[in-house]
């Protein structure tokens, strides 16, 4: 049976109109993407407020934060351990002993595609805000002040991320039940 789609310009468009079939795989992906987008957009809104509307500043900061911490997290070899064997004290204890890996403006420029001069200006602004410090001429690391500001601003996103992941998992299960 074919569904007649409305062609009136003043009527709202349906999901079926957007994706061709509201029961198809594209529609299922659209639903999951919309839930993930809720999470992403909320983070961007919070970042917009914390960084006074400068999302490039947020991107530079985030890339530096990621670079500083990612190597330490990778060194834990979490994927090689059984989840039942991982304990909070073991993970946090191991991280506490890890050194922060500094980065430089060139590596941030390469990773983001933001021109190096723009990255340098943003780094100076992050230093002015006491969110970043230099170790030597080029090594950039976060400051404890930056972590405090992130906590205070609501950019600590773990709970929101886990809630979003739970909703996506439930939706995936529901979408997988085709004939039930």
Query: Describe the biggest sheet?
Result: 2 strands, antiparallel
Cα separation of the termini: 21 Å
Mean pLDDT: 82
Reading the helices and strands in chain order gives: HHHHHHEEHH
- Strand residue percentage: under 5%
Radius of gyration: 22 Å
Could you give the order of strands across the largest sheet?
Answer: 1-2
Percent of residues in helices = 55-70%
Task: Give the tally of β-strands.
Answer: 2
Question: Can you characterise this structure?
Answer:
By secondary structure, this protein is mostly helical. The chain has a domain at 21-50 and 155-173. Helices cover 62% and strands 4% of the residues. It has eight helices and two strands. The protein has helices at residues 15-19, 25-50, 55-74, 88-97, 105-112, 116-128, 144-153, 158-176, and strands at residues 132-135, 139-142. A two-stranded antiparallel sheet has the order 1-2. A hairpin with a 3-residue loop joins strand 1 (132-135) and strand 2. Helix 2 runs antiparallel to helix 8, helix 3 (55-74) packs across helix 5 and helix 5 packs across helix 6. It is globular and about 60 Å long. The mean pLDDT is 82.
Could you outline the blueprint of secondary structure elements for this entry?
Layout: H1 15-19, H2 25-50, H3 55-74, H4 88-97, H5 105-112, H6 116-128, E1 132-135, E2 139-142, H7 144-153, H8 158-176
Antiparallel strand pairs: 1-2
How would you briefly describe this protein structure?
The chain is built from eight helices and two strands, in the order ααααααββαα.
